[in-house]
């Protein structure tokens, strides 16, 4: 930035820089793994200029190998064929369980906080090894073989972790489907992932409400002929439909089998899991992660981003149905051998103190959650933050940009200025944190995810020219220039889509899909998606997928969905729908359309507003101009830009009237 000119990355000049609080360092059990910003910079430099040396050392330091590797990495972003630690062999469940159970069998691995306070229990590493082994036996006896996919449709109970580790123990691949997805969504994911077995519960319990998980599985499986078996954990004891020969009770099966089974020895690049996420088309992508690279990313970020130490008690509020739950409820804390909280409930049940009560009672040292929950709790009021939470050292934020005032509330009211706030930027595809402060080390600015993690070489690209913009104080879209161990290896069964989405947009780069700025000090500010992905309460949704759901309704001729900013949920889904002739336009229809999305995708994707309009704004070639809808919703109908390409320019005024009448 030339002196005297307006900075490009504006807010960087208006915010304070926060250093790791002295009180955090005072209560630290020893000292942070990294001693200073200079040490971070030195390690970072090595990770970029000598990646083989850096990652070879880290891989051997943090993971236990059955067979050592010779080659640290092969392949390139250009060809989308990165592979890591290729000759190495290891097992994920051995790394998460056995090595700790051998040394410390009585150490708590899982702290289960049930939906009802005080109904939880703990599982030690010794118990976890026995549970995982019995479940692994069970799955094997049900016919699951190395390389098979097992779908998991479970609420947040300890058995969710046990299931994932049992699957990977026998070399199978887990494909978790968030237990808020509808039967249709579950069906699509089971079919696409070629799952042979589904693991679920009779019911789930969340926020005092029951969820009919088994019923949803039954409905989904009506159209999944390749699923041979369903393993059902009894959570509530409800009366549920049963298909003899296909369905098995968890408690009846696991008691048949021994408490130890040897882990299957896997190659470093064998698939570890599939996780479906939304892209810019209507069809979800089965993001595939492989064993060693993913595990190393989880362990590395657990150690250096969160600064986890042996006696820490880690609480990530994410659900195991999303990547945050995979990496930071399950893999990172267990790889490092600490205690991890599995929380079944919601932050609002039985009241808005629930998180704070758990943190206080369980002496939690690390808390990690999405800003959407923080906005809700901030709004509920400081009176709910009654407990001292004196063990807290690190407060993490994830999933969406955190507004400066929410950041400050987190730091001051929740953390009492005794914990370091880390705003971690990453994606399902990156596997683990990629732009993030290191707890106890990196100075932070509220609203900025700060600096790149080891091995991540960010580039800001001009989306118009496609050229990288060098230097500081620049804005553009965010890409990465080097492969890193925990990056996704493919989109399952759709490698071409993987190449086109991430590597062919800007040749030689991994494209994140996010806009970003790099300020005058090299700090990154994430602006949000530049594709047709919206972020509602930290849930990643595709506008195309919601449109496809709406069009399934018999009355709908055309639909266009846009994300609008929302005080509570970050973004909210707004739908514009043109109705076929002969249908009455009324509130019942609007309700029915919302129901259609709930049924087709899940309750969390339901549009906040449905506008029934005579027609959508389209170009002469029939392309829907969503930009115009966004402008109308923002009240900027006087700034529509070029509307001469619209096939019917009068449509703007008509839509405008519908929106205004509805408000
Ligand atoms: C998208 C990825 C990976 C965690 C859960 C979401 C947005 C993620 C941040 C952050 C601003 C963020 C991005 C990204 N995002 N973290 N700290 N600040 N935006 O994973 O469902 O794969 O979504 O979430 O837009 O692309 P996901």
Can you describe what's shown?
It comes from Pseudomassariella vexata. There is one protein chain. Helix 10 packs across helix 11 (323-335). The strands form 8 sheets. The chain has an 8-stranded mixed beta sheet with strand order 12-11-8-6-7-14-15-24, with helices on both faces. It is globular. It has 19 helices and 31 strands. Strand 6 (149-153), helix 6 (158-169) and strand 7 form a beta-alpha-beta unit. 31% of the residues lie in helices and 22% in strands. The mean pLDDT is 95. It starts with 21 loop residues before the first helix and ends with a helix. The protein binds 5'-O-[(S)-butoxy(hydroxy)phosphoryl]adenosine. 5'-O-[(S)-butoxy(hydroxy)phosphoryl]adenosine (WT7) binds next to helix 11, strand 20, strand 25 and strand 26.
Question: What tags apply to this protein structure?
Answer:
AMP binding, seven-stranded mixed sheet, globular, 663 residues, 19 helices, alpha/beta, nucleotide-binding, binds 5'-O-[(S)-butoxy(hydroxy)phosphoryl]adenosine, Acetyl-coenzyme A synthetase
